[in-house]
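Friendly challenge for the regulars: who can give me the structure tokens for this chain first? No prize, just bragging rights.
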Amino acid sequence: MVMVTVVVTINVLISLMLFYAAWQVWRLKQWLAKLADTLTAAERSTHVVLCRAPEAIYQGQQNIHNLRLGKQALELQIQQVRQIFSLLVVGQQVWLRYFQRLRLKRSRGGGEQGRQGGRGGRGGRGEERL
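First reply, four minutes later:
Bragging rights claimed.
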């Protein structure tokens, strides 16, 4: 009878260990199922976002290309405006030099013309006011 008790006890212990192992496997299965559901949801979310990504990237590249073309055109216009301003400055300098020389000539010779009865009787002063 002792032998039967030992065999039954060993069988019960083996059964308890196997029951514990089965319970752990069941818990692992539950955890893996939750992980799979989470990963599936994440994949669906990223798929919705990323399925449009190639089109958005292409559109962004096109926009950048168009902006670069526009920038080049604007840079050309800026360069032309700078050249125009440079020409205006040079023209202004030439204009001022011309009138300074004209004034110097008039002030040197203009006084004599005014005394001698120059045009309009103004003595040459009316023309200097330009």
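Residues 114-118, 125-130 have pLDDT under 50 and may be disordered. Residues 2-102 form one domain. Your move, everyone else.
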